[in-house]
Amino acid sequence: MDWNRGASDPAVLIDLLGEWNAAAGPLYQRLTGALVRAVRSGDLRTGDRLPPERKLADALSVSRATVVAAYDALRAAGLVDTRRGSGTRVTAAAAAHRTPADGRVRDGRGTAVIQRLVTQPPDLISLGRAAEAGGPDLAGALTDLAREDLPDLLRDAGYHPAGLPALRAAIADHHRAHGLPTSPDQVVVTTGATQAVALIARLHLGRGSTAVVESPGWPGCLDVLRAAGARLVGVELDSDGIRIDRLAARLRSHRPALLYTMPTFHNPTGTLMSAGRRRRVAQLAAEHGVTVVEDSAHAAALAPGRTPPPIAAHPAGATVLTVGSLSKAIWGGLRIGWIRAPRHAVEPLARLKALEDLGSPLLDQALAARLLPGLPGLAAERERLRRERLATMTRLLEEHLPAWHWHPPQGGSALWIRLPPATDARTYAQLALRHGAEVVPGASMDPTGAHDDFLRLPYSFAPDTAAELVTRLAAAWTSLPHTR
Fold first, then answer.
1. Terminal Cα-to-Cα distance of the chain (whole angstroms)
2. What are the boundaries of each domain within the chain?
3. pLDDT of 269
4. Residues 6+ apart with CB under 8 A from 400
5. How far apart are CA 221 and CA 194, in angstroms?
6. Strand, coil or helix: 338
């Protein structure tokens, strides 16, 4: 999405409105409340023009009367005015209603997904998360930790900004097993992969800097880069991963400070970057002096040898920061991630980590240190469960939503669905939310706003939840005007 188009573009305004559909009350009151919040947060600024009533109504899949009533309420409150020839604009008086910063990322795409993590609306099935419940292995390790490790841990002062030594050693062993020579002093432990990306962004980005990213990509991570002040430049993918010809062109023309890529089961497409493509990424990064963030959040759950060696394993001279996590491999509630970095980059990252929180929780790290060595043994069962749930979701979609199309993913936990021509996934997402399903439209996952006829659909749900989800999605789909 090109944010220079401003709020007069319905697609831009919809992203600013976020979760308006999940509120209670009549539609016009929900829309009014969301518009007021956008004004008070500063997302809508003095002089910003709102879309024409009919266009916004079509984009939101509501009646024009709903938008008219909402605009009337804003005019009555003095937040907007309407003049012939210039449309409906936010007034200067609206500045008096500004509220303090509310944690949203200006021009971000992950606002709605993050908001629903915060508010957790009841009975909503969210497609913004692809997570599974923790297994019995987690409970067993926790029991062993309490019995065997807790006395020594309690004698520790508890402050390890770079990470608990035992966990750093386990992470180094994990990377060596996956073809990346690593020593414990090359590891910084973080509170999840998102914090890892945020620390790297703070170190390498600033206001006016540029980051090259894959297009599409996960909006949560893209917003982390935006929050650091970066301008994002997208590069397309093909069946082997990020396109090398387009990447080379972007590196030449934009001279970015950072390249962010997800080579192992890319989110949302499920693409596995080939070994040759990884080698060329490392070479190009070295030639152009750009630091690479290699997000390997999905790699921890895999057996050694299941994927090509990581980008950081190619000795091309580039600085590659490899991000890992146990969220996909073990449990989303175990907020343990890490950065594997060249030694010269570890100390600055550890300093930023110390400023952030003085170090991740020690008991969580000790639990992770126990679990990491057993990941290869869990890989086969995880893969079996993944295949079963993919088959279940595929069957349900083929039965209830035959107009939707996708390529079978090489891995990961989501389908990248293409909707029929002339279907805007953002409009469909508005209807799906009213039916109790949160859809992440493709345009929110693309720095340019392209892929607006795609959506991301995790298939990691248990069979009964998957069936209920597809029932809701199908009901929303049949309510689209062009599907009747």
1. 29
2. 3-102, 125-133+377-483, 136-375
3. 94
4. 470, 471, 473, 474
5. 7
6. strand
CATH class of 3-102: mainly alpha
Classified as helix, coil or strand, 294 is strand
CA angle 478, 215, 58 (to 5 degrees): 35
Instruction: Determine contact, residues 138/330, Cβ cutoff 8 Å.
Output: yes
Instruction: Provide the residue count of the chain.
Output: 484
With 0.90 as the threshold, say if the pTM is over it. no
Q: Which residues contact 387 (CB under 8 A, 6 or more apart)?
A: none
Q: List per-block mean pLDDT (blocks of 10 residues) for the chain, which spans 484 residues.
A: 60 78 82 88 86 91 92 91 88 70 54 56 79 73 90 90 97 95 97 96 92 94 92 95 96 96 95 96 96 92 88 91 91 92 96 94 94 87 90 98 95 94 89 90 86 93 96 95 60
CA distance 260 to 68: 42
Contact status, residue 441 vs residue 429, Cβ threshold 8 Å: yes
CA 363 to chain CA centroid, nearest Å? 27
Domain 125-133+377-483 fold: Aspartate Aminotransferase, domain 1 (3.90.1150)
User: CA–CA separation, 363 vs 277, rounded Å?
Assistant: 39
Q: Which residue has the tokens 């206001």?
A: 207
**Architecture of the 136-375 domain:** 3-Layer(aba) Sandwich (3.40)
- List own/partner pairs for 165-171 with CB under 8 A and 24 or more apart: 166/365, 166/366, 166/369, 167/336, 167/365, 167/366, 167/368, 167/369, 167/372, 169/369, 170/368, 170/369, 170/372, 170/373, 171/324, 171/338, 171/340, 171/372
Q: Which residue bears the tokens 């992770």?
A: 368
Q: Which helix (H) or strand (E) holds 104?
A: none
